[in-house]
Amino acid sequence: MSNSSSLSNSSCPVVPPNGYALPLETYYNDPSYDIRPIYNTTVAMERIFRWIYRWNKNSDLPYILGGDATRDDEKSYLIGLLWASFALLLFALLWLLLMVCFKWWGPKRVGFFSARRLRPPPPEEPTEALEKREQMYKSQKNAKGGVPFQHNGIALGFDEMGKPTKKKSKTKKFVKGTIQAPKKLVKSTIKAPGKLYNSQKKKFQQTFHKSKKFARINSAGEIDLTNYLDEETETKSSSGMRSVSSPNPPGNNQEGGSVLIMTQDDERAIRDYEVELERYYQICDARNTRLRRIRAATAVCAIGVVTAAVMFVIMGIPTLWESSKVTDTAISMLQQQAQVVQQAVLELQSTYQETSIAVEKFILDVNEFCPNAAEEFCSNVQDSEQRDCDFSTLPQLETELNVMIQYLDGTFELVVRKDVLEQWYFDLLTLDNLLNRATAYYPTTLNWAFWVAVGCNLTLALICVLICIAAMLLYFGHPLPLWLKRHRSFVMVPTFLVLVVLGWIFSSAFIVSSIVGADACINSPDAFMLSLLNRLEGEFSINSVLHDFLKYYVRGCPVESAPKDLDQRVVIMTQLIVPSLQDFRNAMDRIGLSNVQQLCGGADLSIFISKINALETQLCELSQSFLTTRMLLNCPNWVQWYQLGAYEGMCYYASTGFAWAASTQIVMMVLSMIILTLRVSFFELNEVADEGTQCTSNWCCCVQVMPDDEDDDEDESEEEYHTSDVSENHEEEVLEEEEDEDLETEDVGIDVVDDDREEGVGNGRNDREGDVQ
Known about the structure:
It is a multi-pass membrane protein. The chain contains 20 helices and 11 strands.
């Protein structure tokens, strides 16, 4: 008796009320578990959920997944999600279409936005008047042997960067064949041509009044010889030029000759040309200033793209990588826990089989243990379903025997069913398969897409560095390196455009991920996970105990909703079946073994008592197996990994990471679109004589609607503005002006050079000088 009592106390567990369903707060300070208070939301998650417009569509994701939503509700949520993501793609598409329209409209309508730069038309040169002056001054020579004066000291041209230049001589420049005007007079005339023209005209007229051979100063600061020769020899030519014939002009030993004289209309045309030329320079300067600002803006945008890419790498990659790592760890630990429970269920099945065999043998022993009372107490003893026992012939132990057989024959089979244990094992395999699918999908599918986005963003940042270098070089007036020119149009810009298009796609993907994550995690991910478990209920067996436990974990392990199935089985085993054996044994002890032996006859009852003790031990071991399985399903063993995967991995890290990724990606794409719109800034101009000025973007400046027709080419050629064909290689010889103070007196010395001698027609004869007074 003492042996059985000690055996019962040591082997059979005692299940306290709610002993396996304690609140989570109980484990907060337990170092064995990583359970802590949870935070229901984050700032990024809340902002994404509140700020992103859903077009008044359903945003309750747990309700959609719960199974109670209609197809219209699911469709409404999907439409709202897609519109929120397609809004970005639509914005990018409209921007690209606008850039195509800018390209189509051309530079005259939209200017720099067409990716081409055209200068305003330079003023039309009065070629006839300039030729007159050139021919007239060819026969004259400076009093000090100077070279011809270049009209107004202005040379029209453009530098390598396409900027108009006004090449004014630091020293006074003279063109071969032109009369040199006094330094003082030229300077003052250039500054105020209208005022000095009248004041100086009178002075020179008085100087040469007697002979009527006086020179005057025109608006260009040059000496005009209109009245230099005698009036009697003056004739008019049919071309509008005045040809003056003189038998022997002063200072010229030629027997006869003619000098071409400019008219007032020619002078006016030249003055108007110079005014228009100055206005042209001002317009070009304004446009160049605007272009410099555009280049500066492009460089700033490129730096912004690089900065956003760095933030994407610094803030987005670690958080999303940590999310993937934490989620993978949680899933792996859940798999390990499920495998441990699988092993426990296998042991439980083995223990059940042994116990079931022991129960059947014990029932057979009970059927024959008292032959004096009845040879067999049970009919159909081999068939558990048809078995019927009657212990009325042994009234001393009838009650105890009926209770014990009822528990062993009926309750035991109900409490420990073979099919139930098989369902448990099947459910654990199902859970393991679901976790395997999650492990294969989450890191693989999301990681490769994320790393592709990282590669594209870093490549885009590298190209933006090159664009920034090109824009800054052109901003400061430096030519682009040859390697950058070669790869710019056919490699850099097309790759940049492709990366921008891919970037918008990644932006939409990040936005969708952020929205879904915010919908799943806002306030708490528990509702989302419960809806997901309800949707996956068909994957488990009917009335699955494991499915109930999973929902119990997701709810936060509330005591009132803890599954009682395993606890009840353990309680029935330890508090009903095992005590029934103990009551039967105690009843025999109460009657006395010797009295029972005399009453029943047959074999020694001590052997029967040992069988009772062995069955009790076997039942306690089975109860302990149930209890072990129940302990493995205890809340802290699973909730800590659920919190790690759902709260930290899926919500905290993922929502923050996707928020950083989406925001930096959108900033990069907007700045990249600005760079594409202002792509003219990192292309310099090519100066092509007689072919106009065109952008060097051979790749149709990134976007081209269709190739231009021949008529369009002709129109463009008419619209493009030709530059002046002036270069330093074709500039005529310049010399420094020597100040002539003699012209301030009454006598002005002017050297005249014969035109033929100046051209070398005289067999090397020396130039002769003459004085004109």
